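Entry 14: structure prediction run for Transferrin receptor protein 1. Input pasted below.
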Amino acid sequence: MDQARSTISKIFNGEPHSYTRFNLTQNMEGDSSQVEMKLSSDMDEEAGGNGVGEHLNHNSNNKRAAPQALGRTPKNLCFMAAATLLIFIIGYLIGYLVHRNKDVAPACSAAAAPSDSGVVVVKETGAAPLMDWDDVKKLFAEKFSAATLAPVLRALASESHRAGSPGDEALGNKVLGKFKEYGMDFWTDEHFVKVQDAPASGYNRFTFKSDAEQRPVGFLSYSATGTVKGAVLYGQYGQESDFSSLRDKNIDMNGRVLLVRAGRISLAEKVANAARVNASAVLIYPDLEDFSFDENTAIFGHVHMGSGDPYTPGFPSFNHTQFPPVQSSGLPKILAQTITKRMALDILRKLGGPILPDGWRGYHRLGDENDTITVEVRNVLAEKKITNVFGVIKGFVDADRYVVIGAQRDAWGPGFAASTVGTSVLVELARAISDMVKNEGFKPRRSIVFASFSAGEYGSVGATEWLEGYLSSLSMKACAYINLDGVVTGQSGFKVAASPLLHSLVGSTLNEVKSNQGKSLLAQFASGNWEANVLEKLTEDSAAYPFLAFSGIPSVSFRFISDSPGYSYLNTMLDTLDKLNAATAGRVPQLAETAGRFAGHMALRLVHDHLLRLDLLKYDRIIRSQVAQINRKLSILQRNQPQVLPSTLTAQWLISASGSFSRAARSLTADVQNSDLEDVEMCRLINDRMMTVERSFLSPYVSPRDSPFRHILLGSGPHTLKALSAHLDSLRTDLPDPDVDLFRNRFALATWTVQGCANSLAGDIWSLDNEI
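Run finished. Output tokens:
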């Protein structure tokens, strides 16, 4: 009605009284186009009633003179009455039509966002013409193929491109040149990081009993340095369960040098577990049961229980940053070194002591106090300049919201599976999607950022430093991160690790993407329950993990795998094209194509749809499950050991917070299903609410230096719900002084973190449902 009244007022009264400027749409650069529009005289009407705002009306004197000029004759009064009636009828009809159009607006389902047929008319809301999803898939299939990938794989292969080396810099320049060639906006990000390398002169070494000195070639970055002497103790894989088995045999691990096999858990976890049992050093070797290479092959890695530069924890290592003298809490305090299978055999065959626990694999004896060994680690700390390379395809509606696709660029040696395949897929995805936008009329709603990271072998250093440098922006504007590291290491299986928010999107993508054999990935690798057959845990040694657990960005990592023992050459100098061809029957380009299609389909779906495909109810089920487990353990403890925890401490607060999250998630899901897809601003508000979910799980009560992975469900540290459950288990033991106050503090902080997630998800402050 107001719009109709304003329009007719302009017809009868001539020029408007004031002008303003407002944003009509966003251009490709993210700026706002300014368009001068006429406004109604609502402000003048308000001013005429009570005098408020008269100073804003530039024609107030003319307005007061109008009644005098018009006169109040019967003829004029009749004319005014007729005009008023006409205005009312026209306004009623306009209001009815507008209301009817809103009622028939299309709805969106959280499970399957609809796609429009034909071209949508551009409206003042700034909506870009939307290409049908089936047409997007067909167009992408034409642009991305194994034939175009094969020459890129050859062009980007390099024998030496360790982080910060000339080979790494040359490879980064090649990637940057490709982004320039495709007409993308591009930039680089330099960091000066501290990494630990093998001694430039001399060797790391060890001596077992009176045997000759051994000098291994491989090394573990971020080990403690120095010399220790102790008795060897075989610890199988160095898992917590392995050390529990040793404790059950009453074996003292204090000061022992643990000899453990590589595999099952990360190198950093093995060293951290050994430090917790007070070992003095760890020697890690690749057993032939787990690795298929010869017994003299050296392995490389790092032992930082975290990611990024451990000497700038929680903040970026830019050159101008004033670094405080701090270190990451994840740096080990004990020595760690890799040795070859041959070196390990020479030790294992001579060990005495107790026999192996039941179910263990290895040689017959664990070692005794007479099996002494001297270990010396002389790694050197060096500062290196690393360069991250970026290119962007900007969106046409929400250009400041983006999906990030990233790949590690460096490697210990040739690193063909570790980095070359992922970097090649990254470059080809950038070319294919750029071509779709420039030449085929595809207009993504959101932007896609392509990132080539360096220093991945030292613990996702390049990726984490970028996150730390721009965390406040990335955590709010990045919709998802898609990781391309190690996407092809075999052909017999397919595994995906992802945020629960992305599980539904993963499932639909598996069904849409076909392998070179003509079957969908779902049919080929995930018959039956695809979540049980395909999904795996996202681990700390994945570059996707800091995006999820440190920055709160929904992330996904995936890979083709081989049957056990799998591709053995990662973290060695033997990771070459020939070795990967042998593991894939020469189908590297074809498998890389399928991996690229999987990543591309996920990215395109996230930038194509009006509403983001994020499964809000998945986290609801996870929270309720973990809260129920904590409640059950708490009840058992209070019933059986009432002296440990007072009966006044209940899980009711945590249960109420869980209920708040459940209601908020279901309410937002209903808003998604009932949304008007042509209302761009409403879609943006809903998407922003969904994007808050992941980052709201980052505990605000812990320091990024002490616990960088602050996610209470998928992170690591005492703030997580799993740690809270484990704390209850420890209180049930016969410890002399159980730390009940510490538990109550962590219990309260976890409760309020869950409630904060619910509040963030609910949106406006007046929509909050806080029953605690």
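Notes: The longest helix spans residues 74-103. Will compare against the previous run tomorrow.
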